[in-house]
Amino acid sequence: MSDNEVAKKLKVKVKPKLERPKLYKVMLLNDDYTPREFVVGVLKAVFHMSEEVGYRVMMTAHKMGMSVVVVCVRDIAETKAMAATDLAKEAGFPLLFITEPEE
Length: 103
What we know:
By secondary structure, this protein is an alpha+beta fold. It has a domain at 33-103: CATH 3.30.1390.10. It contains 4 helices and 3 strands. The protein has helices at residues 3-10, 36-47, 51-64, 74-90, and strands at 23-29, 66-73, 96-101. Strands 2-1-3 form a 3-stranded antiparallel sheet. The protein is elongated.
């Protein structure tokens, strides 16, 4: 076998296996102190929801104890949850957003 033939056989293309990033849920936890209007305002400001969608998410959390706000990659989920919680904290409310892995 010549060197040229060996070189041709060694050129094997390997495609890297790309995996989808793991998704995380941002959850809104209900509390009995934060005004509903403020919660909807945070959902609109941080998560770019309409008034109607924000109201539905807020009411789901109010009735069920928590509600899924958005599902996205971990970095974005954690950043948005922190931003929303920080807005509430700055306004003096105990509103809390958490993240958890999507199943």
